[in-house]
Design a protein that fits this description.
- Helices cover 24% and strands 22% of the residues.
- It has helices spanning 11-15, 38-45, 70-82, 110-126, 160-167, 194-204, 254-261, 280-287, 316-323, 349-359, 432-440, 466-476; strands spanning 26-30, 51-57, 62-67, 86-87, 90-91, 93-96, 146-152, 173-181, 184-191, 208-210, 213-220, 235-237, 303-307, 331-334, 342-345, 363-364, 367-368, 370-373, 392-394, 420-424, 446-451, 459-463, 488-491.
- Strands 10-11-7-9-8-12 form a 6-stranded antiparallel sheet.
- A hairpin with a 7-residue loop joins strand 21 (446-451) and strand 22.
- Helix 9 packs across helix 12 (466-476).
Length: 496
């Protein structure tokens, strides 16, 4: 007999289910806590595919769960052999059933069917979710395993891997999607168990990831399942390592991926370096082996190796100015025997990661530069009395560091290189024409210009290309416009 009839008289048949049965789309779940709900059992199966039927045997602390395909059931069983599933903090056991499908008596199984219909409605609404576009269904789950996370005061970037490290402390994280909405970095994170989501929310809501910044605001999502299409630096489905990185969806930069791979968390997943000033939350994660602290585990993480430079044009000053957009450059050394390469020492590991992620692959003076983490712990200054032709320079006491002041607005205005530049500290005596001429003389074309309406001290200026904008920033940041007004130039996310 291939069907299970929910009439209470099939005790012998239930006992026929073996631990190592042949694959079936019907799964037998044992050792369930007595207070567990249908929604929680259904939620176990949702990450792997559509759940088509459920049969709860409350008196026996068991359930049968039917998935739409055998393939989905196989994926689910494989996943839960590596990660023990928990419901309400109790380990439970999942195995294939001998039954090939569930045929339930709807009158006796009415409640379970109603819950399944409601969850299916939410699930189909959530199918619009992808790594790039996120919308939430209007139906609230009684207790969702999905958390919605908003990060306030995001002075340092928070990666998907950092979120995984912190939230894994409370249970198995199945999926994460990150996105920006209303100019705020947000994430949806799905646990295997709604109780884990509840514990994480209670513990982490309102906590800072790093000292005095990156505050977590956590709530339950209206979704009970996330549909992740791509595994990259924006979204990840840990139950489906086979997912593509996605067309036009850049996966993690190889250089950063290599840096992450140097460390491994308790779950064997990539770990990102974090800033030196760690909050108690980050420290507790670090103690659990989940976060790499620069200088402790990943020696050399504050020094970058930059190669394929234009050796006829590049100087320590030009590298200081460009890399200074993403952190406070301490020292620069152009290699004596290989002048198309340089070592750059940043103030902390996070700034090194930031500069690498934004500048690797950019064009500087006609050449595409490569930026990776160096094995060196620091950039050595030449011995006293030794002339290294000005190839090494110490910028430790430079007044031009952008990030010296804690909580500086500069932390909130870090953007990738773009053709549009943000200009500030402009004296009222300087006209648009004079600024256009100044930037044209840097070797590019000025395509557009706009003063800020409320503040003539600031303007947006668009160059002909990103490469031209990089060159203009290098040449004109800190340019003296007279009256002791030194021009401030940074990349903008706006367009004119």
């Amino acid at each position: 007999m291939s069907n299970v009839i929910a009439n209470g008289s099939d005790r012998k048949k239930f006992k026929a289910d073996k631990m190592d049965g042949a694959p079936s789309r019907v799964l037998h779940i044992r050792k369930l806590p007595s207070e567990v709900t249908e929604t929680e059992v259904i939620a176990l199966g949702l990450p792997f595919g559509k759940v088509t039927n459920i049969l709860m045997l409350k008196g026996k602390n068991q359930a049968f769960l039917e998935l739409a395909s055998e393939e989905a059931a196989v994926t689910m069983v494989k996943y839960y052999t590596t990660v023990t599933p928990h419901l309400r903090n109790h380990p439970i056991y999942i195995q294939y059933s001998n039954h090939k499908e569930l045929k339930t008596d709807s009158a006796l199984n009415q409640r379970a069917q109603a819950v399944l219909q409601a969850v299916t409605a939410v699930q189909s609404a959530s199918n619009s979710l992808s790594g790039s576009a996120v919308s939430e269904s209007s139906m609230t789950s009684t207790q969702s395993p999905v958390l919605r996370i908003i990060i306030d005061n995001m002075y340092y970037p928070v990666t998907l891997d950092v979120l995984h490290q912190i939230f894994s402390k409370f249970g198995a994280v199945l999926k994460i999607i990150t996105f920006t909405k209303n100019n705020q970095f947000q994430a949806l994170l799905q646990y295997a168990d709604p109780v884990n989501a509840q514990q994480a929310k209670l513990t982490l809501d309102g906590q800072n990831i790093y000292n005095a910044c990156c505050t977590l605001r956590i709530d339950f999502s209206k979704l009970v399942n996330l549909n992740v299409k791509y595994n990259n630096d924006k979204s990840r489905d840990y139950t489906r390592p086979d997912l593509p990185a996605g067309d036009g969806q850049p996966s993690l930069d190889p250089a950063i991926a290599a840096a992450f791979a140097k460390e491994s968390s308790l779950l064997g997943l990539p770990v990102a370096a974090v800033p030196g000033a760690l909050s108690p939350l980050a420290m507790s994660s670090a103690a659990a082996g989940r976060v790499a602290i620069p200088g402790v585990h990943s020696g050399g993480s504050i020094v970058l190796l930059v190669s394929n430079l234009n050796d006829e044009m590049v100087t320590p000053q030009s590298l200081f100015t460009l890399f200074g957009v993403y952190g406070d450059v301490q020292r620069v050394k152009i290699l004596y025997n290989k002048k198309d390469s340089a070592l750059i020492q940043m103030a902390d590991g996070n700034q090194a990661q930031l500069a690498m992620s934004h500048l690797n692959g950019q064009k500087m003076y006609g050449k595409i530069i490569r930026v990776t983490l160096s094995k060196h712990q620091a950039v050595q200054l030449p011995r006293e009395g030794l002339d290294d032709q000005g190839l090494t320079k110490d910028f430790g006491n430079s007044p031009l560091h952008r990030f010296k002041k804690p909580g500086s607005k500069n932390f909130q205005n870090i953007f990738p290189p773009s053709a549009t530049l943000h200009l500030s500290n402009i004296p009222s005596s300087i006209s648009e024409e004079e600024l256009r001429t100044l930037f044209s003389n840097s070797g590019g074309i000025v395509k557009a210009f706009k003063f800020f309406q409320r503040d003539h001290k600031m303007a947006l200026l668009q160059m002909g290309s990103v490469e031209e904008a990089i060159q203009a920033l290098i040449e004109l940041h800190n340019y003296n416009l007279g009256d002791n007004h030194h021009l401030r130039v940074s990349f903008s996310k706006s367009t004119i």
